[in-house]
């Protein structure tokens, strides 16, 4: 990593095994990380829109992550040094954006932490570890900047791969006092969260978006057909009675909702055995839904 004034620049080479020689390493992709600049705004918003178009959330009819990025650039909580893009051959193929947030303990003391998201990777570059490299680079920068920890809401089967743990392990809950596997924390150094517990509070911008505003903003971009979710019935019809009862208890109307639960949480349900997990995995994969 090279520090250039207020900007960070890093160059990464992605090695992979040569298919003809399993012991030989060859570089297949060169990635540059740098801060986002105003000239990148439209490209980043288009990238974010493409990356999240199929992402499901309750009561949402249109993607709003690109609107969120648009708004995050204007809030005081934004950390400009951690508003980063990943480039390949001059093309922006990934983006991550951070804001400051806080953990408020029982006595009202506030402890500053970071929050990131959205994290976007251009669909054509997904499944190539680019997201992991982008996150890892940003965590290195965050540590160099002197921050304590990162607290996020994210895919509960993905982020543990880059070192995140349930926030409950550190005594941190949501602002409403809840804890679940998709709510995670990452200390940036040993003991960073020792003696710190409480409720996590993030910038109000994350809850300010409306579908009306998202639709108006999205109309500025080329038309995309709305993403159609998959009814949970396509899975229920394949499960045994015990496993079916367990899935019904989750009250998931659509298959996409599995992305909000970890493998551990689903596995712990009464009636879910290895066979049921195999069916769940296969069904999600069949419908192009990334899970465990």
Give a verbal description of the structure:
This protein is of the alpha+beta class. It folds into 2 domains: 35-84 and 95-211, Aminopeptidase (3-Layer(aba) Sandwich); 233-286. The chain contains 8 helices and 11 strands. The strands form 2 sheets. Strands 1, 2, 3, 4, 5, 6, 9 and 11 form an 8-stranded mixed β-sheet that branches. Strand 5 (91-104) and strand 6 (110-121) form a beta hairpin. The longest helix is centred in the middle third of the chain and has 15 residues, at 130-144. The radius of gyration is 20 Å and the shape is globular. Residues 1-9 and 13-27 have low confidence and may be disordered.
CATH superfamily of the largest domain: Gcn5-related N-acetyltransferase (GNAT)
CATH architecture designation of the largest domain:
3-Layer(aba) Sandwich
Oligomer status:
single chain
Mean pLDDT, all residues: 90
Number of helices: 8
CATH fold-type name of the largest domain: Aminopeptidase
Order of helices and strands: EEEHHEEEHEEEEEHHHHH
**Unreliable residue stretches:** 1-9, 13-27
Overall spatial form: globular
Sheet bearing the most strands, described? 8 strands, mixed
Q: What's a quick, concise take on this entry?
A:
The protein contains 8 helices and 11 strands.
Helix-strand blueprint:
Blueprint: E1 2-4, E2 7-18, E3 21-35, H1 41-52, H2 65-72, E4 78-88, E5 91-104, E6 110-121, H3 130-144, E7 149-153, E8 165-166, E9 172-173, E10 183-187, E11 198-201, H4 211-218, H5 233-236, H6 241-249, H7 263-267, H8 274-286
Helix pairs in contact: 1-2
């Amino acid at each position: 990593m090279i520090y250039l004034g207020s900007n960070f620049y890093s160059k990464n080479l992605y090695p992979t095994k040569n298919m003809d020689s399993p012991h030989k390493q060859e570089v297949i992709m060169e990635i540059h990380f740098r801060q986002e600049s105003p000239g990148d705004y439209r490209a980043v918003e288009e990238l974010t829109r493409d990356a999240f178009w199929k992402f499901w959330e309750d009561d949402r009819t249109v993607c709003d992550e690109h609107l969120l990025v648009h708004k995050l650039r204007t809030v005081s909580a934004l950390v400009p040094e951690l508003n980063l893009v990943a480039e390949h051959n001059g093309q922006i193929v990934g983006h991550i954006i951070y804001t400051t947030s806080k953990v408020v303990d029982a006595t009202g003391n506030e402890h500053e932490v970071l929050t990131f998201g959205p994290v976007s990777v251009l669909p054509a570059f997904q499944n190539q570890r680019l997201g992991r490299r982008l996150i890892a680079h940003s965590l290195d920068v965050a540590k160099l900047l002197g921050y304590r920890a990162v607290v996020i809401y994210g895919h509960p089967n993905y982020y543990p791969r880059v070192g995140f743990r349930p926030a409950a392990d550190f005594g941190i809950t949501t602002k409403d006092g809840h804890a679940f596997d998709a709510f995670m924390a990452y200390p940036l150094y040993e003991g960073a969260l020792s003696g710190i517990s409480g409720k996590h509070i993030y910038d109000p911008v994350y809850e300010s978006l409306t579908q009306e505003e998202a639709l108006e903003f999205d109309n500025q971009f080329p038309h995309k057909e709305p993403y159609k979710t998959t009814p949970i019935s396509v899975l229920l019809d394949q499960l045994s009675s015990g496993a079916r009862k367990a899935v019904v208890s989750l009250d998931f109307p659509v298959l996409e909702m599995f992305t909000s639960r970890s493998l551990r949480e689903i596995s712990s349900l009464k009636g879910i055995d290895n066979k049921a997990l195999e069916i769940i995995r296969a069904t999600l994969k069949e419908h192009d839904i990334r899970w465990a």
